[in-house]
User: Fold this.
Amino acid sequence: MSGFVTVWLECRSDSVRRMFEELLASHRAFLIKQSGGPATVDVVCVELDEINPERTLASMKGLLEKNPALEVFLTGGRTDSQVMLEAFRIGIKEFLPQPINRKEFDAALSRLKDRLMSKAGNRSAKGGKIIAFLGAKGGIGTSTLAVNLAMSLRQLKQAKQVALVDLNLDDSDLPLFLDLQPGKGFRDLVRDLSRMDATFVQSLMSKHESDLHLLQSGLTGTEGPTGEAIPGGAALHTLDVMRSMYDHVFVDCGHTLNPETREALDFASMVVLVTTLSLPAIRRAKQFLQVMRNAGFDRDKVTIVVNRYQSSDAELLQHAEELFEQKVGWLVPNDYQMASSSLNKGEPLTVHAPRAALTQWYLAQAASLAGDKSVNAVEAGGGSEQKSSLFSRYWGGLTFSAKARG
Ligand SMILES: Nc1ncnc2c1ncn2[C@@H]1O[C@H](COP(=O)(O)OP(=O)(O)O)[C@@H](O)[C@H]1O
Ligand SMILES: [Mg+2]
Assistant:
């Protein structure tokens, strides 16, 4: 399951509280909230008052009547059949006898996930699409790709809410691409995960004049709080909340695998692995592909992108694809002058050079990401053979250009 589940612990003894904390620690998708109370979460874990069980049950009954979607896990030392019957009657679906056995607890969580998934109207109001960008190396164009695809999509689909997330926690430069002041962001957001919600996320977003929103890394200058630890699950929870706020979320994961970027890659519905055709980049891309395959990623989930492609590279490309055991999905035309002048001016390509071939390539890919097949010359052009041909991957943007302007 993707998404996270908030938990409230209603325990009479510290030992039971600790037991729940330990059991939940290995489940990244579950977040124990420290404030807000039992009515603000998805699941309440409650310890039965053994001397006066009616009291616990009455309070849970009141809670469930007001919050019918709430799930309650009840734990107790003895299994009195009357108490159990009453518990199930008021809507408690799980009872965990103490001491709680990990296997039983995990099974209860797994049933819970199934129930939550099948519930209508789940928490993702928009159910936005998350695309994570991972660079094989630094300096090969990963940020350029994430920024310009997001911006092109924003330009093509004015009605769609689009956000960018900068997970380059030590080396962040997305604000430069958009001429935005470096400011607060992810690091500030995840300092207290229990506060995480759409309002808090919204308050930390930087806004470009195009209405593209950016969640910065939250690293300001060299004296930024680089040493501060990021809690586990931080990226997962952030993206889960953002998914309910935006139609498309583009995550720049930089070129390193760390817990945050791993979570983003895991959570994303699509991973864009960016490489060039230089040998070190190809080698590293192959390693990343292997990591993702070992982690059980679907082949369809990962799109390999070769940046700075030129037609003289055709043979190299073929060798790279053999090594990857996978076709390269997109070939981004090489235009260093255009890409770097756009970056230096802090203007995305659609603003900087709307008619340039490179910009047209971006617009075509953005249209295809938006599911807009009718304007995608590559896909409209014919069968699957043509779709994966070198010509269509590379020059798709150019064939599309006339339509984009018309
Ligand atoms: N299609 C392209 N053709 C030529 N140069 C490019 C292209 N895309 C990006 N670049 C340049 O590559 C350099 C690194 O880009 P950047 O996006 O910052 O890389 P990364 O995020 O991988 O470190 C920049 O100077 C950028 O202008
Ligand atoms: Mg970068």
In short: The first helix runs from residue 14 to 25. The domain at 5-118 is CATH 3.40.50.2300 (Rossmann fold). The chain has 18 helices and 13 strands. Confidence is low (pLDDT under 50) at residues 120-124, 374-388, 395-406.
